[in-house]
Amino acid sequence: MYQFSGKLKMLAIILMALGLLGTGISFMSAPKTLEEAKEILAKQNDAHHGGHGEAASHGEAKEAHATAAHGESHDDAHAEHAFHQMQNRPWSAVFVAMLFFLGVSLLVMAFYAAQRVAQSGWSVVLFRVMEAITNNLHFVSIFMLVFIIATAMHMNHLFPWMGEGVFDPKSPNYDPIVDAKAWWMNLPGWTIRGIVYLAIWNGLRFIIRRKSIEQDNGDLKLHKNLYNLSVAFVVTFMVTESMMSWDWIMGIDPHWFSTLFGWYVLATFLVSALTITALVTIYLRSKGALPLVNDSHIHDLAKFMFGFSVFWTYLWFAQFMLIWYADMPEETTYFVQRFNEYKLPFLGMVVLNFIFPVLLLLNSDFKSIPWFVVLGGIAILIGHYVDLFVMIMPGTVGGQWGFGIGELSGILFFAGLFIYATFSAFARVNPVAKGNPFLHESETFHYYNIQHRGEDNSHH
Amino acid sequence: MSTNKVIHALYNDDDILMDAVKKVKGAHHHIEEVYTPFPVHGLDQAMGLAPTRLAITAFLYGITGTAVAVWLTWYTMIADWPQDIGGKPNFSWATNMPAFVPILFELTVFFAAHLMVITFYMRSRIWPFKEAENPDPRTTDDHFLMEIPVHDNEEELKALLETTGAVEINVVDKH
């Protein structure tokens, strides 16, 4: 049985403490009044020798409409706009990190359920690793729930459609486009849906995990039962995941819509989920906690990382190219803003998420070398964090974005939480799902190429 | 002067064949060829064959295909006759790059796949009207054949092969 070492627990707690501290600092240092925001803007302008035409590009941002309509001077409207963005920044920093870890844990669960539905033979020795990672789903969900309630109580302004008077024709903030979507975009609906997604995911995860541990007794009825539950999870997950991506990510840009957005979000989380499964597996194996995992299992995980990296790129490009090609103004603004204000992360993530993994993990031999998979995995994880960053930040903080204490602290906190949730869950039960009828198949799993290299193949 | 003599050992089960191959290799005899009606997993490893390099050629062909596609799109769309077609930005290759990606992708796959297949045919010496090199027609149906060259050790080899569960052992003069 695996022992959750004191050192690792300490690391998790330190990460969480640092994250909390940094998040606190980022909330404190956000401007509280318009005057403070103007001071910051003045400093920014000095640093840039009188600005660089930022104001012009801001005029195009959708959120600016309401303020610009007042007939105030452009400078004041700009300052107020920037003030809201600065206030959003600490919230967005936490939101991006939280959503990243929530999505990753959720997709590990979805992949795990898919493995059960597919009756896959190779992955049974990894089941306990995946189950342990999904324990993080419960932990992040609590924070997500708090976030949903805080957002519904108007404690932040991440979602412009939640602003005052957006649905009121008499208000200067009235937005007829959003008003036409009121049947979906309304606060009670958004809040209830969010809670329902979390309840479904957590409920099914809890039952599946409990039954899986029970299955250590070898009961085949339980196996069938787990199969049915996994089917239920996969089906409800596909529906709720699409809706979640509309509610929590696409809702930040309420004037914009894209049909394949749900799958695109799915792809980004799925690659990250497979990568994190591989990294945790490699770590636990190096500690001797997974005696049955061999290089072939790592090879298969790396193949999935490679394949879904390409799949992500396919969806990312399909979304971008269709909009770029037709160039319809109401759709193109989404990418214009990203291309102008977020050029480095927007283009950099294609290198990290596509070019790097493709060149690194193409070679079959490299896919089974643990340190190589770790190297590729770190690039993939950074790349997909940046991907989520570029999905959310332009709509919430716009030109006021940066990667500072707030953003880093969000990652540190949820990484610490992830480590704590995962390894404490892994230490709690038998690291081998010994009652699974496919265990032997998984134990003797060997990929042909690796045999050539001379991995232990006594099971041939 | 029996340099052209070979022994053909026939088997009717791939598991028995695998064990026989390991035994013959263990006794340090060279196996010239093994004929099987279907791929036997692990046979190449048991025979000690080097891994194929076909995938490496495919990668190089793929890069070639990408280069050809870049050149084609750049020359025809940007360099030779840069027309305004529906407002597409044909000022430089990079500004119109997304429109070229489908071609880049397809030509990469096309070059990688076709040239790799042709490489495979050439390296395996397969072409239409080629005379089949089959020592025994049963090996295309349900028998496995191991061919071992004889170097004045016919009796020893025969005795060894008889212990491996061969259903038939023939000494053949090869042309």
Q: Could you provide a short overview of the structure?
A:
Chain A: It comes from Tenacibaculum holothuriorum. Chain A has helices spanning 6-29, 34-47, 54-60, 64-68, 74-117, 127-152, 176-179, 187-214, 220-248, 261-286, 295-326, 329-341, 343-361, 370-396, 405-428, 439-443, 448-453. Chain A has 460 residues and is an all-alpha fold.
3D structure, described in words:
Chain A is mainly alpha-helical. Chain A has one domain (6-29, 84-431). Chain A is built from 17 helices and no strands. In chain A, α11 packs antiparallel against α13 (343-361). The longest helix of chain A is centred in the first third of the chain and has 44 residues, at 74-117. Chain A is globular. Chain A starts with 5 loop residues before the first helix and ends in a 7-residue tail after the last helix. Residues 50-72 and 456-460 of chain A have low confidence and may be disordered. Chain B is an alpha+beta fold. Chain B has two domains: 5-37 and 142-173, Alpha-Beta Plaits (2-Layer Sandwich); 53-124, no CATH class. Chain B has five helices and four strands; from the N terminus they run βαβαααβαβ. Chain B has helices at residues 14-26, 43-47, 54-80, 97-124, 154-162, and strands spanning 5-11, 33-35, 144-149, 168-173. In chain B, strands 2-3-1-4 form a four-stranded antiparallel beta sheet. Chain B starts with a strand and ends with a strand. At the A-B interface, α11 and α17 of A face α4 of B.
